[in-house]
Amino acid sequence: MKKKRILSGMQPSGRMHLGNLIGALQNWIKLQEEDECFFFVADWHAMSTNYENTKDIRENITQLLIDWFACGLDPEKSTIFIQSRVEEHALLYLLLSMITPVSWLERNPTYKEQITQIKNKDLSTYGFLGYPVLQSADILSYKANAVPVGIDQLPHLELTREIARRFNFLYNAKLVEPEPLLTNIPKLPGTDGRKMSKSYNNAIYLSDPQDVFENKVKNLITDPARVRRTDKGNPDVCTVFVFHKIYSSADEVNQIDKDCRGAGIGCTDCKKRLVERMKISMKPIWEKREALLSDPKKVMDIAEAGSAKAKKIAAETLNEVKEAIGI
């Protein structure tokens, strides 16, 4: 059976957090064992919401790659590259933007949500409105068959499919319409109960010192209706229980569910158990991360080699697109 070609990326807009690990990276690590995978650092995308502050972007790229490798992404099994090193993405983005209706971009639910939620930045830019077209160029450049996405990213991928269909119709071309690969993990909540996000300042980072990491976990929001230790709780509305379902065994999860509903366990003890389970999971990542921090040049050399490989494929697609248009 022919391997599927998979593509996905992540912005170097800051440090990598548990939402990135659970919602995306762990899935990537599984996919690289089975399919032909391309994973990229989306540094141009980072500018869509952080264009006024780019002084840390190079360091963020290095740190993101270190996190990827520490968690288990393997350059021997995947092509790992940096978006801005493959300028063909930008050229395809330009060409696709010529055929993309503005109304398609304005209806994007993620665009609407972030315009409403993020008040400390001016997001009224063409780059922010049009970044799903750049995302489409990223995907279509590699003729990816599938893209691993969370449910909140489905509208973006559908837009990519619509752009591909429109391009193929206009120019009698054969751009590949990618299928979604939905992850099984729901949105991971942050320390304030909202979706974990750098933008919301509610994230638990892989690079957090252990004491900071533990403190953030201990301050996760529990059932707000449970005021006293003797009150019966509802784990269905508890952020801590969401993390238990990821880091604790099935038997432990069932017991915590039962004990919480019957007031058999307090929130403090529940959090202590969670901290210990999470530390066991994070220990090998923290250790690998420390080792990689000692040789950042080697990390960047791996990404540069991956970028050269990716560039060859993207250039072939761009030539096909230009030929179809007739330019």
Characterize the structure shown.
This protein is mainly α. Helix 2 (43-50) packs antiparallel against helix 7 (126-140), helix 3 crosses helix 12 (267-293) and helix 4 (88-97) packs across helix 7. 55% of the residues lie in helices and 8% in strands. It contains 13 helices and five strands.
Percent range of helical residues = 55-70%
The coarse overall form would be globular
Major sheet description: 3 strands, parallel
Strand content: 5-15%
How many beta-strand segments? 5
Low-pLDDT stretches: none
> How big is the Rg?
21 Å
Summarize model confidence as the mean pLDDT.
93
First and last CA, distance = 37 Å
SSE succession: EHEHHEHHHHEHEHHHHH
- Which class best fits the helix and strand makeup? mainly alpha
- Please count the helical segments: 13
Side-by-side strand order of the widest sheet: 1-2-3
Notable features of this structure?
single chain, 327 residues, mainly alpha, three-stranded parallel β-sheet, 13 helices, 55% helix, globular
In short:
By secondary structure, the protein is mainly α.
Helix/strand layout:
Layout: E1 5-10, H1 18-31, E2 36-41, H2 43-50, H3 57-71, E3 78-82, H4 88-97, H5 102-106, H6 109-117, H7 126-140, E4 146-149, H8 154-171, E5 179-182, H9 210-218, H10 239-247, H11 250-261, H12 267-293, H13 296-325
Parallel strand pairs: 1-2, 2-3, 4-5
Helix pairs in contact: 2-7, 3-12, 4-7, 4-13, 7-8, 10-12
